[in-house]
Amino acid sequence: MKRLPAPVLLSAAAAFWGGNFIVGRAVSSSLPPLTLSFYRWVVALLVLVPLAGKEVWSKRSQIRDNPGWFALVAITGTVLFHVFVYVGLATTTAINATLLVATSPVIIPLVAVVVHRDRITVMQALGIAISVLGVLLILTRADLDVLASFAFSPGDLLILAAVVAWAVYSVVLRDRRDDLSPLGFVLAITVLGIPILLVLYLIELATLGGFDVTPGHLLTIVYVGLFASVLAYLAWNKGVELIGAVRAGPYMSLMPVFAALLAVVFLGESLELYHVAGTIVIALGLILSGRRPATAPLEAEGGPPSIGNNGPVLRRRD
User: Could you tell me the sign of the dihedral formed by the alpha carbons of 285, 288, 8, 40, in that order?
Assistant: First the structure.
């Protein structure tokens, strides 16, 4: 994964998360949302502990030295985003949900402006706008009547809250002060997030009851725990580290594209012309927003500190 370019890493994360929306919607009526959130991270924990447990334990002082920051990324990245998404999918359509998540490329730069006082270039703004247009083409099936009938529901508001949580998570990744490996970092925020999810799960269990242990439910939990959690987070975190949150944000627009392709494979839906047109438009937006001004420093684009062999190398802003 270290040698893969940022576009490949970020696209892979978007593909895994696109599948997450499909399975999340498919089991929304039979697998309680907080239960799914809790067990997905239990699976991730079981995968990560053998791989990075010793490292995290040996570097636990780095987590203790930055408790507020680690708590923030754990709450926004492993708790709030997924809880809001799974709860929201129970009361909104998949079209509405993916449309709102596709606003991440807009929300992330705005959060970066507030948190880091970053500036958005004209080219990045144009690329973001074009990417969102491509998403609209796919989600509305290039039909203005579909867009005109769009209305917010409680689930829509929860999905929007998830987008804000993810934007905060992506932007503050730039402020890392540890030298944990990618596996170690994901394990650390998983360990910090699971106690909160456990409390929420127990409350849900007491009020709604459990779920039927079926092969479908087990496969769903394994998928969201391994692919949509461990592998997607590793890919996304590394991609953001390489090019920054602002330039990485538009890749979230690929989620509906991959979701549509997965729907063709697993749900028997047909691939339409508007899927192809929307994908081309999104790709154009990603190319434009990913271009780095020739004279602009990395910090002006929202890039993270560089990670050297001896840990984070923090660059001073002028």
Answer: negative
For residue 313, the cross-strand partners are 306
Residue keyed to tokens 């997450």: 20
| Beta-bridge partner residues of 311 | 308
**How far is it, in rounded angstroms, from Cα 123 to Cα 195?**
42
Tell me how far CA of residue 197 lies from CA of 38, 75, 81, in angstroms.
5, 10, 12
pTM: 0.76
Contacts of 19 (CB under 8 A, 6+ apart): 223, 227, 228, 258, 259, 262
Asked if 82 and 37 touch (Cβ cutoff 8 Å), the reply is yes
Tokens of 235: 């890919």
C-alpha distances (whole Å) from 118 to each of 193, 237, 292, 302, 304 are 29, 19, 14, 6, 12
* Separation between Cα atoms, residue 82 and residue 104, nearest integer Å: 15
Domain spans, the chain: 6-292
- The answer to whether the beta carbons of residues 172 and 72 sit under 8 Å apart is yes
pLDDT in tens, the chain (318 residues): 668 899 999 999 999 988 888 888 888 889 999 999 999 999 999 999 999 999 999 999 999 999 999 999 999 999 999 999 999 988 876 666 776 777 777 788 888 888 887 777 888 788 878 877 887 787 677 777 776 776 667 888 898 899 899 999 989 988 888 999 988 999 999 999 999 999 999 999 999 888 999 999 999 999 999 999 899 988 988 898 888 877 887 887 788 788 877 777 776 667 778 778 887 888 888 778 766 655 444 333 333 332 222 333 333 333
Determine the Cα–Cα distance for residues 122 and 194; give it in Å rounded to an integer.
Answer: 41
